[in-house]
Predict the structure.
Amino acid sequence: MESKPKGKLAGFFHFPQGDGLSTDEFIKGLWRENPVLVQVLGMCPTLAVTNSAINAMAMGLATLFVLVMSNILVSSLRNVIPKQVRIATYILIIATFVTVADYVIQAISLDVHKALGAFIPLIVVNCIILGRAEAFASKNGVWASFMDGLGMGVGFTFALLLLGFIREILGSGSLFGISLFADSFQDWVIMILPSGGFFALAGWLLLFNGLKLRKKQAQPEQTREEVLI
Amino acid sequence: MFKKTLHIGTSPHIIGGSSTDQIMRNVVFALLPVAAFAVYTFGLSALLLLITALASCLLTEYFLNRWIGKSSPLSDWSVTITGLLYGLTLPPHLPLWMVFVGGVIAVALGKFIFGGLGYNVFNPALVGRAFIQAAFPVAITTWMAPFLPDRFSHIPGSTLTLPFLKPVYDITSGATPLSLMKFEHHTTDTYNLLMGMTSGSTGETSALLILLGGLYLIARKMMNWRIPVALLGTVYLISTVLHWSNPDIYPGGLFMLFSGGLMLGAVFMATDMVASPITPLGATVYGIIIGIMIYVIRVWGGLPEGVMYAILFGNAVSPHIDNFIRPRVYGTGKQWSKS
C-alpha cells in the first residue's frame, strides 16, 4: 500500500497512532469508558432484560454483534454518506443488523427470543450503537472502528452480566437456569422486578465509582484532572 | 459584663426549649406501651423481632457513620425510633434474617444515602418495610394468631429460619381484620379492634395504646396534631359517606379507623418531622392526601392494606406541598408566593 492513499477510500486501512492494532480502542470500552458503568448509556436494555444471566448474555451478545457490524459498515462508508442524512443512514445500517440478530436469536432459542421480547428490535434505538457510529466510526478507520465496537460491546455485555448474575442468584437462586441452592432457598422477588434492576445497577455503580475515587485519591495532584476525564 | 448580656447573632432569635434528642426520646417513651402490648399479644416471637429490628438499625447507623467519620450518631435517639417503628410494622413471626435485611435497608437506603437525620425524603422505617414487602411478599402477608396459649414458651419455627431459607410455619395463622373484610366480607367488632384483640402486624393491633401515645406527644407539643387529625378525619369522612350510600360494599367509618396500620401510621409515621410539610395548612393538606390514598388503596386497590404506600406517597409530595403553600412574609402583600 502507498504511504498516503487518496480518494473516497482514503483512510480505509488507516491505523491511528500508538500500536498498530488499536488495542487502546478495545480496552477503553471495557473499563475507562464502559458504556454502562461509566457512560451510563443504554439504560433501557440494561434495566429491562437483566433479570436472568442468560437474558443478559443474549442481549449483550446481540448488541455486541450489531455494534461491531454497524461500526465497520459506517466506518467504511463514512466518506460517501452525505452529512445531511447521516443519522438516517446510520439507523438504516443498524436496523439491518438488528434484523439479522433478531432472526439469529429466534433460530437459536425461541425461549430467549420470547423472554427478550420487544427489546431486540429496540436495539435499533440503543444510544450506545448510534453514539459509537456518530462519535467514533464516522471519524475513524475500519480497523479502529472494529476494535472500538468490539470493546464497547464486550464492556456492555460484561456490565449486563454483572447485573444478571446478582439478580438471578438473589431473585431465583439459580445461575444460567441451573439451580444453585436447595428448594428451600427464599427468592428475593424484588430482584426479578424492575425495581431490583435499579438496586443492582446502583450497587455496581457505587462500587465502580468508589474504586475510581480511590484510584483518583492515590494519584498525585497533577494528574487528577486526567483521571476525572 | 457587657459582652455576657448582649448577644448578637443570626436568626432564629427565639428558640424552642426542646432539642432533637429530647423529642426523639419522648417518641420512644410513647412507643414503649405499644411495644409492650405487642410482646404481650404475640409473645417471644414479637420480642425477638423487636430486638432484631432495633439491633439491625442501630448497628447499620453506627457502622455507616463511623465509615464516613461522623461521631456518636446514636445519641439523638432518632434511629431508635426507626428501629422500633420498623419492628412494629412487621408480622410477629417474620423470619429474623428478613427483619435484619430490612433494617439495614431502612437505615442505609432510607436515611444514610440521603445524608442522615434531617435529610431523609421518606420515613426510613417504611422504606425498610416496603423493601421487605416487595422482596418477600408471601412472608410479610402471613399473620400469626394473637394470644396463643404457648406464646411465652414456644418460639415459632419461622422466626428462627436460617438466613436465605424459606420460613416454615408451625403455628396457628390468623387473618387480619382488613383481609377478612376484603376477601371474606367479614367485619370485625370495633371493641376488639380498639383493644387489640385481633391479628395483624406486631404493633398495629391496639388502637387505644397508640392513641394514648399520640395524645401524650401532642400534649407535650412534640407532634404536629394537624397531620393525624386531618388524616384520620379524611378516612372517617369518606368511609362514613360511602358506607351510608351502600353498606354492603363499603365498610363503616369506625372499622376503617381502628383496623390495620392506620392508627400507627397516622400517629407515628405520617408525623415524621423531616418528611412532612412545615406549615400548618401544608400539614393539613398532607394529612388529607394520605387519607384519600389509604382509602383508595384499601377499598379499590388489590392490597388489603395501603397505609405504608400512602404515607410514602405523602412523603414524596410533601416537598411540593411546602413549595406551593408558603407562609406570608411579614410586611409583604397577602398573596400566594410564586416559586
Remarks:
- Residues 228 and 266 of chain B are 5 Å apart (CA to CA).
- DSSP finds 14 helices and two strands in chain B.
